[in-house]
Specification:
The chain is built from seven helices and 15 strands. A hairpin with a 2-residue loop joins strand 14 and strand 15. The strands form five sheets. Strands 1-8-5-10-3-2 form a six-stranded antiparallel β-sheet. The protein starts with 13 loop residues before the first helix and ends in a 5-residue tail after the last helix. It has a single domain, classed as q2cbj1_9rhob like domain (Jelly Rolls). The structure holds 2-oxoglutaric acid. The site of 2-oxoglutaric acid (AKG) has 13 residues, from strand 3, strand 9 and strand 10.
Protein backbone atom coordinates (compact mmCIF):
# COMPACT_ATOMS: atom_id res chain seq x y z
CA UNK A 1 0.00 0.00 0.00
CA UNK A 2 1.31 3.48 -0.87
CA UNK A 3 2.97 5.41 2.00
CA UNK A 4 2.96 8.73 0.08
CA UNK A 5 0.18 9.92 -2.26
CA UNK A 6 1.26 9.18 -5.83
CA UNK A 7 1.26 12.83 -6.93
CA UNK A 8 3.39 13.88 -3.92
CA UNK A 9 5.90 11.03 -4.28
CA UNK A 10 9.48 12.28 -4.83
CA UNK A 11 9.98 9.19 -7.03
CA UNK A 12 7.04 10.14 -9.26
CA UNK A 13 7.76 9.30 -12.88
CA UNK A 14 5.20 10.71 -15.25
CA UNK A 15 5.81 8.28 -18.12
CA UNK A 16 5.64 5.25 -15.80
CA UNK A 17 2.99 6.35 -13.30
CA UNK A 18 0.48 7.90 -15.69
CA UNK A 19 0.76 5.22 -18.39
CA UNK A 20 -2.62 3.69 -19.09
CA UNK A 21 -4.65 6.42 -17.37
CA UNK A 22 -7.38 8.18 -19.36
CA UNK A 23 -6.13 11.63 -20.51
CA UNK A 24 -8.48 13.56 -18.18
CA UNK A 25 -7.40 11.49 -15.15
CA UNK A 26 -3.70 11.91 -16.07
CA UNK A 27 -4.26 15.68 -16.40
CA UNK A 28 -5.82 15.71 -12.93
CA UNK A 29 -2.86 13.87 -11.35
CA UNK A 30 -0.38 16.18 -13.14
CA UNK A 31 -2.24 19.30 -11.90
CA UNK A 32 -2.34 17.98 -8.34
CA UNK A 33 1.41 17.43 -8.48
CA UNK A 34 2.24 20.80 -10.05
CA UNK A 35 -0.23 23.07 -8.23
CA UNK A 36 -1.59 21.15 -5.21
CA UNK A 37 -5.12 21.49 -6.57
CA UNK A 38 -7.06 20.52 -9.69
CA UNK A 39 -10.46 20.94 -11.32
CA UNK A 40 -13.05 18.30 -12.17
CA UNK A 41 -16.20 18.86 -14.22
CA UNK A 42 -18.65 16.57 -12.45
CA UNK A 43 -20.60 16.03 -15.68
CA UNK A 44 -24.06 14.84 -16.59
CA UNK A 45 -26.69 15.19 -13.91
CA UNK A 46 -24.50 17.22 -11.56
CA UNK A 47 -25.97 20.72 -12.13
CA UNK A 48 -29.50 19.39 -11.40
CA UNK A 49 -28.19 17.61 -8.30
CA UNK A 50 -26.57 20.87 -7.15
CA UNK A 51 -30.01 22.55 -7.37
CA UNK A 52 -31.50 19.73 -5.31
CA UNK A 53 -28.71 20.04 -2.75
CA UNK A 54 -29.48 23.77 -2.41
CA UNK A 55 -33.23 23.11 -2.01
CA UNK A 56 -32.62 20.36 0.58
CA UNK A 57 -30.08 22.33 2.63
CA UNK A 58 -31.66 25.81 2.59
CA UNK A 59 -33.99 24.93 5.50
CA UNK A 60 -31.01 23.53 7.46
CA UNK A 61 -28.72 26.58 7.22
CA UNK A 62 -27.72 28.32 10.43
CA UNK A 63 -28.00 32.09 10.89
CA UNK A 64 -24.41 32.28 9.65
CA UNK A 65 -25.52 30.55 6.44
CA UNK A 66 -23.77 27.22 6.83
CA UNK A 67 -24.59 23.63 7.70
CA UNK A 68 -22.24 20.94 8.92
CA UNK A 69 -22.71 17.33 7.78
CA UNK A 70 -25.91 17.89 5.81
CA UNK A 71 -25.13 14.54 4.12
CA UNK A 72 -26.98 12.84 6.97
CA UNK A 73 -30.21 14.66 6.06
CA UNK A 74 -29.86 15.58 2.39
CA UNK A 75 -29.74 12.71 -0.16
CA UNK A 76 -28.48 15.16 -2.82
CA UNK A 77 -25.52 16.26 -0.67
CA UNK A 78 -24.73 12.62 0.05
CA UNK A 79 -24.80 11.74 -3.66
CA UNK A 80 -22.47 14.65 -4.45
CA UNK A 81 -20.11 13.58 -1.65
CA UNK A 82 -19.95 10.09 -3.19
CA UNK A 83 -19.74 11.25 -6.84
CA UNK A 84 -18.05 8.31 -8.63
CA UNK A 85 -15.98 10.44 -11.02
CA UNK A 86 -14.39 12.35 -8.11
CA UNK A 87 -13.60 9.14 -6.26
CA UNK A 88 -12.06 7.62 -9.40
CA UNK A 89 -9.78 10.65 -9.84
CA UNK A 90 -8.76 10.59 -6.17
CA UNK A 91 -8.01 6.86 -6.30
CA UNK A 92 -5.68 7.51 -9.26
CA UNK A 93 -3.93 10.53 -7.70
CA UNK A 94 -3.45 9.04 -4.23
CA UNK A 95 -3.09 5.32 -4.94
CA UNK A 96 -5.43 4.39 -2.07
CA UNK A 97 -9.20 4.08 -1.81
CA UNK A 98 -10.80 7.40 -0.74
CA UNK A 99 -13.79 7.85 1.56
CA UNK A 100 -15.74 11.04 2.23
CA UNK A 101 -16.19 11.78 5.95
CA UNK A 102 -17.54 15.31 6.37
CA UNK A 103 -19.53 17.94 4.47
CA UNK A 104 -19.95 21.69 4.89
CA UNK A 105 -22.50 23.76 2.98
CA UNK A 106 -22.18 27.52 2.65
CA UNK A 107 -24.79 29.98 1.40
CA UNK A 108 -22.26 32.80 1.02
CA UNK A 109 -18.47 33.19 1.09
CA UNK A 110 -16.90 31.91 4.31
CA UNK A 111 -14.17 34.62 4.48
CA UNK A 112 -12.10 32.03 6.40
CA UNK A 113 -8.46 32.85 7.05
CA UNK A 114 -5.93 30.95 4.96
CA UNK A 115 -4.99 27.60 6.47
CA UNK A 116 -3.81 24.14 5.56
CA UNK A 117 -6.22 21.32 6.37
CA UNK A 118 -3.25 19.54 7.97
CA UNK A 119 -3.95 21.54 11.13
CA UNK A 120 -7.53 20.19 11.31
CA UNK A 121 -7.40 16.70 9.81
CA UNK A 122 -4.31 14.66 9.30
CA UNK A 123 -3.37 11.05 8.84
CA UNK A 124 -0.53 8.58 9.17
CA UNK A 125 0.94 8.06 6.72
CA UNK A 126 0.80 11.81 6.13
CA UNK A 127 -1.19 13.66 3.46
CA UNK A 128 -3.85 11.02 2.75
CA UNK A 129 -6.57 13.65 3.02
CA UNK A 130 -8.09 16.19 0.64
CA UNK A 131 -10.90 18.70 0.28
CA UNK A 132 -13.37 18.64 -2.62
CA UNK A 133 -14.99 22.04 -3.10
CA UNK A 134 -18.15 21.88 -5.26
CA UNK A 135 -19.82 24.97 -6.76
CA UNK A 136 -23.58 24.68 -6.20
CA UNK A 137 -24.03 27.84 -8.29
CA UNK A 138 -21.77 29.78 -10.69
CA UNK A 139 -19.17 31.58 -8.56
CA UNK A 140 -19.16 35.32 -9.24
CA UNK A 141 -16.41 37.87 -8.50
CA UNK A 142 -17.13 39.78 -5.29
CA UNK A 143 -19.02 36.87 -3.69
CA UNK A 144 -15.99 35.80 -1.59
CA UNK A 145 -14.62 33.03 -3.84
CA UNK A 146 -12.44 30.28 -2.43
CA UNK A 147 -8.81 31.37 -2.52
CA UNK A 148 -5.74 29.13 -2.72
CA UNK A 149 -1.98 29.52 -2.99
CA UNK A 150 -0.60 27.59 -5.92
CA UNK A 151 2.21 25.20 -4.98
CA UNK A 152 1.83 25.76 -1.22
CA UNK A 153 1.33 22.00 -0.68
CA UNK A 154 5.14 21.79 -0.95
CA UNK A 155 5.75 24.19 1.98
CA UNK A 156 6.64 22.69 5.38
CA UNK A 157 3.61 21.62 7.42
CA UNK A 158 2.79 24.18 10.16
CA UNK A 159 2.03 22.74 13.61
CA UNK A 160 0.66 24.70 16.59
CA UNK A 161 4.18 24.78 18.07
CA UNK A 162 5.52 26.18 14.80
CA UNK A 163 3.15 29.14 15.12
CA UNK A 164 4.14 29.87 18.72
CA UNK A 165 1.66 27.82 20.78
CA UNK A 166 3.64 25.74 23.25
CA UNK A 167 1.00 24.26 25.53
CA UNK A 168 -0.63 20.81 25.14
CA UNK A 169 -3.96 20.59 23.33
CA UNK A 170 -4.95 23.92 21.79
CA UNK A 171 -8.41 25.49 21.79
CA UNK A 172 -10.14 27.36 18.99
CA UNK A 173 -9.07 30.63 20.61
CA UNK A 174 -5.42 29.50 20.48
CA UNK A 175 -5.93 28.70 16.82
CA UNK A 176 -7.29 32.20 16.13
CA UNK A 177 -4.61 33.88 18.23
CA UNK A 178 -1.57 31.96 16.97
CA UNK A 179 -2.25 29.96 13.84
CA UNK A 180 -4.30 32.36 11.73
CA UNK A 181 -1.98 35.40 11.88
CA UNK A 182 1.29 33.42 11.60
CA UNK A 183 -0.04 31.31 8.75
CA UNK A 184 -1.22 34.44 6.92
CA UNK A 185 2.27 35.96 7.29
CA UNK A 186 3.83 32.77 5.95
CA UNK A 187 1.67 32.97 2.86
CA UNK A 188 2.62 36.59 2.18
CA UNK A 189 6.32 35.75 2.71
CA UNK A 190 6.08 32.72 0.41
CA UNK A 191 5.36 34.94 -2.61
CA UNK A 192 3.32 32.08 -4.09
CA UNK A 193 0.59 32.97 -6.62
CA UNK A 194 -2.81 33.53 -5.00
CA UNK A 195 -5.85 32.48 -7.03
CA UNK A 196 -9.56 33.08 -6.59
CA UNK A 197 -11.68 30.20 -7.79
CA UNK A 198 -14.36 31.34 -10.27
CA UNK A 199 -15.94 28.12 -11.50
CA UNK A 200 -19.38 27.22 -12.83
CA UNK A 201 -22.05 25.20 -11.05
CA UNK A 202 -21.32 21.47 -11.18
CA UNK A 203 -17.54 21.85 -11.15
CA UNK A 204 -15.26 20.83 -8.30
CA UNK A 205 -11.82 21.86 -7.11
CA UNK A 206 -9.74 19.36 -5.15
CA UNK A 207 -7.06 20.62 -2.76
CA UNK A 208 -4.19 18.55 -1.41
CA UNK A 209 -3.97 18.13 2.39
CA UNK A 210 -1.31 20.84 2.78
CA UNK A 211 -2.55 23.33 0.15
CA UNK A 212 -3.13 26.75 1.75
CA UNK A 213 -6.68 27.95 1.09
CA UNK A 214 -9.46 30.03 2.62
CA UNK A 215 -12.28 32.39 1.69
CA UNK A 216 -11.67 35.79 0.06
CA UNK A 217 -13.44 38.97 1.18
CA UNK A 218 -17.05 39.50 0.12
CA UNK A 219 -17.08 42.80 -1.79
CA UNK A 220 -20.56 42.39 -3.29
CA UNK A 221 -22.70 42.65 -0.16
CA UNK A 222 -25.66 40.28 -0.11
CA UNK A 223 -24.27 38.04 -2.88
CA UNK A 224 -24.56 34.29 -2.50
CA UNK A 225 -21.82 31.71 -3.13
CA UNK A 226 -23.55 28.41 -2.57
CA UNK A 227 -20.99 25.67 -2.20
CA UNK A 228 -20.35 22.28 -0.70
CA UNK A 229 -17.04 21.16 0.77
CA UNK A 230 -16.48 17.42 1.08
CA UNK A 231 -13.51 16.31 3.18
CA UNK A 232 -12.03 12.94 2.28
CA UNK A 233 -9.63 10.54 3.92
CA UNK A 234 -8.15 7.35 2.46
CA UNK A 235 -8.40 3.71 3.55
CA UNK A 236 -6.37 2.17 6.34
CA UNK A 237 -4.87 5.33 7.78
CA UNK A 238 -4.51 6.61 11.30
CA UNK A 239 -6.82 9.65 11.44
CA UNK A 240 -6.21 12.46 13.94
CA UNK A 241 -6.70 16.16 14.73
CA UNK A 242 -3.31 17.98 14.78
CA UNK A 243 -4.73 21.13 16.41
CA UNK A 244 -5.69 19.08 19.48
CA UNK A 245 -2.50 17.00 19.43
CA UNK A 246 1.03 17.68 20.56
CA UNK A 247 2.70 16.61 17.35
CA UNK A 248 6.27 17.13 18.51
CA UNK A 249 5.67 15.07 21.69
CA UNK A 250 3.92 12.34 19.63
CA UNK A 251 0.60 12.72 21.52
CA UNK A 252 -2.03 12.45 18.79
CA UNK A 253 -5.78 12.99 19.18
CA UNK A 254 -7.38 10.18 17.14
CA UNK A 255 -10.58 10.49 15.11
CA UNK A 256 -13.23 7.93 14.17
CA UNK A 257 -14.35 9.58 10.93
CA UNK A 258 -17.69 8.41 9.54
CA UNK A 259 -17.69 6.93 6.05
CA UNK A 260 -20.46 8.84 4.25
CA UNK A 261 -21.18 5.74 2.11
CA UNK A 262 -22.22 3.60 5.11
CA UNK A 263 -22.84 6.19 7.81
CA UNK A 264 -20.55 4.25 10.20
CA UNK A 265 -17.08 5.07 11.46
CA UNK A 266 -13.78 3.96 9.97
CA UNK A 267 -11.50 2.77 12.72
CA UNK A 268 -7.99 4.34 12.62
CA UNK A 269 -5.17 1.88 11.92
CA UNK A 270 -1.44 1.89 12.50
CA UNK A 271 0.76 -0.48 10.54
CA UNK A 272 -2.31 -2.39 9.43
CA UNK A 273 -3.70 -2.90 12.97
CA UNK A 274 -6.57 -1.19 14.72
CA UNK A 275 -5.17 1.64 16.85
CA UNK A 276 -6.15 2.41 20.44
CA UNK A 277 -8.91 5.03 20.78
CA UNK A 278 -10.12 6.45 24.14
CA UNK A 279 -13.47 4.93 25.11
CA UNK A 280 -15.04 8.40 25.39
CA UNK A 281 -14.30 9.05 21.70
CA UNK A 282 -15.74 5.64 20.81
CA UNK A 283 -18.92 6.33 22.80
CA UNK A 284 -19.31 9.75 21.14
CA UNK A 285 -18.81 8.29 17.64
CA UNK A 286 -21.24 5.45 18.35
CA UNK A 287 -23.89 7.89 19.49
CA UNK A 288 -23.22 10.17 16.49
CA UNK A 289 -23.55 7.34 13.95
CA UNK A 290 -26.53 5.62 15.62
CA UNK A 291 -28.55 8.75 16.26
CA UNK A 292 -28.02 10.32 12.82
CA UNK A 293 -28.51 7.60 10.26
CA UNK A 294 -28.34 9.05 6.71
CA UNK A 295 -31.62 9.56 4.86
CA UNK A 296 -32.29 8.39 1.34
O1 LIG B 1 -15.36 27.70 1.11
C1 LIG B 1 -14.59 28.46 1.66
O2 LIG B 1 -14.70 29.69 1.59
C2 LIG B 1 -13.45 27.93 2.51
C3 LIG B 1 -13.61 26.49 2.88
C4 LIG B 1 -12.47 25.99 3.68
O3 LIG B 1 -11.50 26.67 3.88
C5 LIG B 1 -12.46 24.64 4.24
O4 LIG B 1 -13.49 23.94 4.20
O5 LIG B 1 -11.40 24.20 4.76
Amino acid sequence: MRQVPLFEDPEFDEARDLAGLAPDVARFVRDMRAHGGALIELGEGAPELCDRAVAETDPLLTREGRVHDAWRRSPAVRRLALWPKVHAYLRAAYGREPFAFQTLNFRQGSQQHAHSDMIHFSSLPERFMCGVWIALEDVKPGSGPLVYYEGSHRLPVATMRDVGFNGGAATHTDYERHYEPRFGERMVASGLPRHELLIPKGWAFVWAANLAHGGSAITDAGSTRRSLVVHCYFEDGYYFTPMFSDMEAGRLKPRLPPDIRTGWWRWPKREGRRAAVPWRSVAAALWRDLAHRPRG
